[in-house]
Amino acid sequence: MTAALVSLTSLGKRFASGTEALAGVDLAIAAGEFLAILGPSGCGKSTLLRLLAGLAPPSSGSIHWSRPPGPRDIGFVFQEATLLPWADALANTALPLRLAGTPPGERNARAAEALAAVGLAGFEHALPRELSGGMRMRVSIARALVTNPAVLLMDEPFAALDELTRHRLNDDLLALHARTGVTVVFVTHSVSESVYLASRVIVMAPRPGRIAREFHIAAASPRPQGFRTSVAYAELCHDASLALAAGMA
Ligand code: ADP
């Protein structure tokens, strides 16, 4: 494995309410890795992403980056696309660059490139209401990628989409990961999605939120044609389901 991009050591988060959202989390994430964090609601997945993004401080333990990330080195994608309704796809995608003071010519060129990378070339001037749910999520991913981040944190980004759109976005995200080499940390409560996407799955358990299991997915990435309906995939899902159940026990 390549050197860790970020290492979490004995990481804990206790909220003022007394909830222990995370306890004793030890995790090293390699540069370029596609890591899935799998677990039921309330096991601390979002809290872990927020701590990684620097949006909240840990209560205990530490987060060590091999190179301290700047504000634009981390891209964050949420379950909702959260686009500005009055701005077109290009302006929505360019927003982080605009906030960073990048001149209009450069930011529009980079936003157009990011939209093309998520399969939305030709939709630059569409408004969010003119786009499908899947397309809005693509814009949200383009916006997260436009600053060329070292790491992409994704918090159940496809949970609200229909299954076929979700499958399509899964494949496109894997292709994008292979092309760009961006490190991805992907939170999901779907066993099948975690197995389809990641090369390593961390299974979390609640009260307190902690890592219960970890396993590696030995399959080529991007997944070969027909993988979703293959016996190998079904077996990997089966193993992951058992790990999830054991983690909850
Ligand atoms: P998940 O993403 O796995 O659903 P979360 O990280 O959102 O889990 O939450 C983990 C636990 O921490 C839950 O019990 C949740 O209610 C609690 N929690 C999350 N955010 C806060 C907060 N800001 N204040 C108090 N408790 C919180």
In short:
By secondary structure, the chain is α/β, with parallel strands linked by helices. Helix content is 36%, strand content 24%. It has a domain at 84-149.
Structure description:
This protein has helices at residues 45-52, 89-99, 104-117, 133-145, 163-180, 191-197, 231-248, and strands at 4-14, 20-30, 34-38, 60-65, 74-77, 151-155, 183-188, 200-205, 210-216. By secondary structure, the protein is of the alpha/beta class. The protein has a domain at 84-149. The strands form two sheets. A six-stranded mixed sheet has the order 5-6-7-3-8-9, with helices on both faces. Strands 2-1-4 form a three-stranded antiparallel sheet, with helices on one face. β1 and β2 (20-30) form a beta hairpin. The longest helix is centred in the last third of the chain and has 18 residues, at 163-180. It is globular. The structure holds adenosine-5'-diphosphate. Adenosine-5'-diphosphate binds at residues 15, 17, 19, 21, 39, 41-47, 209. Adenosine-5'-diphosphate is lined by residues 15, 17, 19, 21, 39, 41-47, 209.
